Amino acid sequence: MGYIAVRGGEQAITNAEILLHYYRISGSSAPLTTEQILEQLPLAVDRVMSEGALYAPELAAAALKQAAGDTLEASFLLRAHRSSVSRIGASEIINTERMRVVRRISAAFKDIPGGQILGATPDYTHHLIRFELLTDEVKARRKLTQAFEALAQKGEPIPDTFPKVVSMLRAKGLLPQKNPKNTQPYDITLQPLEFPAPRSARLQVLARAETGGILALAYANMRGYGYVHPVVGELRVGEVPLYFKSSAEKKDVLLGWLRVTECEVITRMEKSKTDSRPQFTLGYGLCFGHNEIKAISMAVLDRALMSEEPKSPTEDQEFVLLHTDGIEASGFCLHYKLPHYVTFQSDLERIRKVRTVLEKEKVDD
Amino acid sequence: MTEKLRSLLDSDTNCHYYNFAYLNESAKREIRRRTLKAVAIPGHQVPFGSREIPITRGWGTGGLQLTLSLIGPEDVLKVIDQGCDGSVNAVNLRRLVTLTTGCRTTTRTSDATLIQTRHRIPETPLTRGQIIIFQVPYPEVLRYVEPQETVTRRMHAEGAYHRMWIFLYENVVQWGRITIGARYPVRVHDRYLMDPSPIPRWDIPKLNQSPALMLFGAGREKRIYAVPPFTKVEPLAFKDIPFEVEHQAGAQCSRCGATDVFLTEILDKDGSCRWICSDTDYCDQRLAAREKSHGV
Amino acid sequence: MSLFKMDNEMLSTQKCYRAMLLALCMPGSLQKIDFAENETDFMFEVPPPVALMSRTLLDEQVSVAASGIESKLWLDEIITVTGARKASMDEADYIIASSVPQLAELRSVKQGTLLFPEDGATLIVWLDEEIKGTAGKVEISGPGVKDSATLHISSAMFSLLKRRATIEFEYPLGFDLFAIGSKGFLMGLPRTSSVKIISEKA
User: Fold this and answer.
1) Handedness of CA B225, B229, B232, B234 (dihedral sign)
2) How confident is the model at residue C38 (pLDDT cuts 50, 70, 90)?
3) Mutate to test the interface with B, among C5, C25, C114 (most CBs of B within 10 A)
4) What is the DSSP string of B68-112?
5) Which positions of B are catalytic?
6) Largest CA distance in chain C
7) Domain segments of chain C: what residues?
8) What confidence tier does B239 reach under pLDDT thresholds 50, 70, 90?
9) Overall domain count for chain B
10) Residue spans of alpha helices (H) in chain B
């Protein structure tokens, strides 16, 4: 009886990996290009960048392809890659007031300076499957794009920037003033979380959290396991410039433009810290790419976690921040597939021992 | 055949060169600083940054980060899971280390300088100079009684472990025995309560006064802790309910005949079960010795 | 098939770390730091073993202070090369000493808190002579030492151990130290080590 343990294990995992690739690439359809994924599945790319905590659209597209569409696996690939590249430094603070908006709405007011810009959204479509997508003809595409572009030529360009709704509320004293101190933010990739966690740490965790995870908790809060009662003051999606102050140059260097989604929710009133008059409080959400569910959920949870006396799990920092990282959560969930036969053997021994002892006691009685 | 397939898979990598041992130097430095502090405070969990690496969280990233921070070109690495070198996850972990370091690997405990392990301590006694690195799912032994990190940290700070004793007491009241299987709570250097990782009770006595350095890494939970060589480690027990290791009367390894090691059951097709050594290197050595003495 | 790159710095810091780890987990044992006499890496004033230990452990994430006249010169170089932050003796995570620190200095070194005992500082003490010698005999016991170890040590090492012994740590609080001798021999002393003076001028 040979126990060719070592060779057997290597063979098994090599075969498994080959099979994984084979199923993905052996079909008769043309290979997906990363360009196709970037252009035609941009929201999947955005989600992977957001949960992978790395703004790298091409790598995200490649990761999605490699992961055969599994966004968690793709995010994991990005995260692991992030650990292997060296850090040069920190960028300047992103100014979302400079955003080149593609979508910008407010639920708090019927109309706002600059207007409600719906942008590209499925919000007001009928959520019905378009069966023509089962046979996507290039000609039909070209017809629509050419017609639209002709129309768009005649339209007025939108302004470069839009004022923030919350700035106007601040100016009226209805929201607290921004804290000008700007202390060094916590860096959760360098230091592990401690509780109570500072707000910068909380926002970082939420910014890279798994969308479904924070959605579930935010939803629970909205339904009653919490007291946030949010109103969307402003939700904006667009590109923001990213600047870096290098030690060599005197002025900031523009590294590029990032697509982000920002959401500010106005929540229940509280006594202001400066005078006894009530003010609204603000919950803030920001994430890479276009992901409104994430930005809104993040803003609601940001507000919830400010609770000094948490009355529900959605307000409990440890509960929310330790369980919403998709890479950690899915990893541990899946680890139950690993062999546990030694620990199980130990449990078997205990249960047998206790049963023997109990039976012996019964006999003795 | 495997080599051919493996070379096909690996040849595809667009030749992105990684740092030796995958982690960048900044990550290694942080782990090294934390490990030194862990060694100075036996059994105390030291928080660390814990980077993501190409192994799934929960599958040994803590142990692996420790190995990667330690390993040099001269090291000889052994990786086991449930005591077995051939276990698929152990194979995968070992492969990542060799890919990024070129280090020699071994299945022989006595030849290894670094041993990364999940859920077992090898049967072959460890020696001075060896380092054993445990993969830890739950660094916090007090999770048995308390889910909140802020509370358990305070309990350790104050040495206030009565809730653990109450838990064990209630266990005895209910079942007549302490029913904790693996992952049995221990006390280190008469101070900290420690989670020894899910090793069986059989391995707990090996922690006490070991000649080897024992390091524990929890990647997902972001904690490192350590037990230096020749340190007191004792399992929690009551005077009248002493600590018991696993024991199955009459059990014997169906391959090498050993009885005085940790054995696990294998279910056969006809529903019967036989026993086998969990430590595959030990089993191999014993079998080889037996075959040699029988002139096979 | 290899996918990695390695350079001298990576290799030397890895070996230095292993020596420090062994030294700290086996107090009383002597480990050897493998350093290159002529390789200065922009630290011209700092003795090569101390420079290597600094490069192994220090960066922007930690703070460092100096003890002793010479080490105040060393500190600027160490900070420039590693990026560590300068701090006062009582706040620093790491203290680089060019000679045995004064007792008052040792008393001010941070020892951590019950919640965070790992915040206790680490001292790297340059002895400018050997660790072993004939100035005194001490007995070291505690974690890492089988039973106990008797050592014959030099006068610098003796005064370091004597001063350390007067500060009674309330475990888990305390600081941890490395003594490094002129030929690159290293001894580690974690806070858990008990040092008993057997005799002076053996």
Assistant:
1) positive
2) low
3) C25
4) HHH--TT-EEEEEETTBTTSHHHHHHHHHHHHHH--EE-S-GGG-
5) 43, 253, 256, 277, 283
6) 58
7) 8-200
8) very high
9) 2
10) 2-11, 25-40, 61-70, 88-101, 149-158, 162-175, 204-207, 280-293
Using CB atoms, list chains with 3+ pairs below 8 Å to chain C.
B
Measured between alpha carbons, how far is B132 from B110 in angstroms, rounded to an integer?
12
Looking at the fold, whether B109 and B228 belong to one and the same domain comes out as yes
Half-sphere exposure at residue C5, Cβ-oriented, CA atoms within 13 angstroms = 9
Read off the tokens for B6: 């493996």
Whether residue B76 is contained in a domain is answered as yes
Give me the residue spans of the domains in chain A: 7-84, 96-124+161-324
B19 and B78 co-located in one domain: yes
ipTM above 0.95, yes or no: yes
CA–chain centroid gap for A275, Å, is 36
Q: Which of B6, B10, B15, B29 to mutate to test the interface with C (most CBs of C within 10 A)?
A: B29
CATH number, domain of B136, equals: 3.40.50.11310
**Residues in chain C within 8 Å Cβ distance of B231:** 143-144
Task: Report the candidate in C99, C193, C106, C179 with the shortest Cα–Cα distance to residue C149.
Answer: C193
Chain C partners within 8 Å of B44 (Cβ): 117-118, 172
Cβ distance C143 to B42 less than 8 Å, yes or no, reads: yes
Does residue A268 belong to the interface with chain B, where contact is any CB pair within 8 Å?
A: no
Give residue A285's pLDDT: 98
Residues of chain C above pLDDT 90, percent = 85
Which pLDDT does position A138 carry in this prediction? Answer: 80
Q: Are B153 and C13 within 8 A, CB to CB?
A: no
**Interface contact C170, partner B, CB < 8 A:** no
pLDDT at A4: 35
- The two structure tokens encoding residue A305: 């976690």
Q: Which residue of B has its CA nearest to C143?
A: B231
Q: C62 touching B, CB under 8 A?
A: yes
The distance between the two most distant Cα atoms of chain A, rounded to a whole number of Å, is: 97
Q: Which residue of A has its CA nearest to B90?
A: A9
**Residue range(s) defining the domain that contains residue B7:** 2-144+171-235
Which chain B residue shows the shortest CA-CA distance from C17? B32
> Where do the DSSP E strands lie in B124-282?
131-135, 186-188, 192-194, 213-218, 223-227, 233-235, 263-267, 273-277
How close does chain B come to A348, measured CA to CA in Å? 8
Domain check: are B118 and B261 in the same one?
Answer: no
Comparing CB atoms, the residue among C2, C120, C143 nearest residue B230 is C143
> Burial level of A70, CB count in 10 A (0-12/13-18/19+)?
middle
CA distance B107 to chain A (A): 9
> How far, in Å, are A356, A358, A359, B248 from residue A363 at the CA level?
11, 9, 6, 21
pLDDT single digits (tens) C138-178: 999 999 999 999 999 999 999 999 999 999 899 999 999 99
Instruction: Provide the pLDDT for residue B116.
Output: 98
- Classify residue A315 by its DSSP letter: G
Same domain, B134 and B263: no
Q: Does domain C8-200 have CATH number 3.40.50.11310?
A: yes
B78 close to A (CB below 8 A): no
For residues B224 and B276, state if they share a domain.
Answer: no
Task: Pick A327's closest partner by Cβ from B52, B119, B177.
Answer: B52
C190–B18: do the CB atoms touch at under 8 Å? no
- Residue C152 CA to residue C84 CA, distance in Å, equals 35
Give the torsion sign (CA, B173, B177, B179, B185). positive
Q: pLDDT below 50 — which residues of chain A?
A: 1-6
- Establish if A12 touches chain B: CB-CB under 8 angstroms: yes
Distance from the C116 Cα atom to the nearest Cα atom in chain B, whole angstroms: 8
Chain A adjacent subunits, 3+ CB pairs under 8 A: B
A128 touches chain B (CB under 8 A): no
